[in-house]
From TrEMBL:
Name under which the protein is recorded: ATP synthase subunit a
UniProt lineage: Bacteria, Bacillati, Bacillota, Bacilli, Lactobacillales
Sorted UniProt keywords: ATP synthesis, Cell membrane, CF(0), Hydrogen ion transport, Ion transport, Membrane, Transmembrane, Transmembrane helix, Transport
GO molecular function: proton-transporting ATP synthase activity, rotational mechanism
A single BP term in Gene Ontology: proton motive force-driven plasma membrane ATP synthesis
Pfam families noted in UniProt: ATP-synt_A
Gene expressing this chain: atpB
Compartmental location: Cell membrane; Membrane
Native source species: Enterococcus asini ATCC 700915
Protein family membership: Belongs to the ATPase A chain family.
Transmembrane parts of this sequence: 12-36, 75-98, 118-136, 179-199, 211-234
GO cellular component: plasma membrane; proton-transporting ATP synthase complex
Amino acid sequence: MKEKTLLFHIGPIWFDGTVVLMTLLTCCIVFALVFICTRNLQLKPKGKQNVIEYLIDFVRGILKDSLSSKEVNNFHLLSVTLFLFVFVANEIGLITKIVFERGGEEISLWKSPTADPIVAMSLAMMMIVLTHYFGVKKFGFGGYIKNSFLQPVSFLLPIKLIEEFTNVITLGLRLYGNIYAGEVLLGLIVTMANSLGWWSLPVVMPLEMIWIAFSIFIGAIQAYVFVTLSMVFMGHKVEAEH
């Protein structure tokens, strides 16, 4: 049976209901996590406050490696939000799997939003567009064109234009490919257990647990890589080329 997602349409426009629901759930989890960890802040942090402060410091370290010190504060909040969203979106599909059968097809109701190419590519496109926006905001349109595309030499313009498209593709597909592959393999392990029967559980259960642990690690790494590359691209647009 081929697995599909829940689709609905508003007028002529179709939407992936599973992705919409999981994206909203991801946003709610991120909001709840930040809200819980930042209640009753104290000068001497402990417990849940330590968690959010460690995360903030960790992301600040990413920015310090990618941006000049004067730009770090400008993009710190954006980076923390992006890291949390991508991390939760990567991991949420590992929690469970909810499907129902309809017309010989499995309709999935639970998956990682970033395991969908549209979501991953949209995130990548959003970040690349933001790099252009902040570049124009800082240098003005003329200065932005000169700094981003005509420096250090103008004959590199065609290569730099191509680079803008490849940045979107590599940023999005790297995220999508890793998360999608992890969920596919988890599904294959479950399918193997169902086909072989209960006697396969001593082999399948440890294998499933190992792969889930590895997928959690990969999800965290991909969130780190996505934020790092996004801020590297941002640095190319908001800092003067020499």
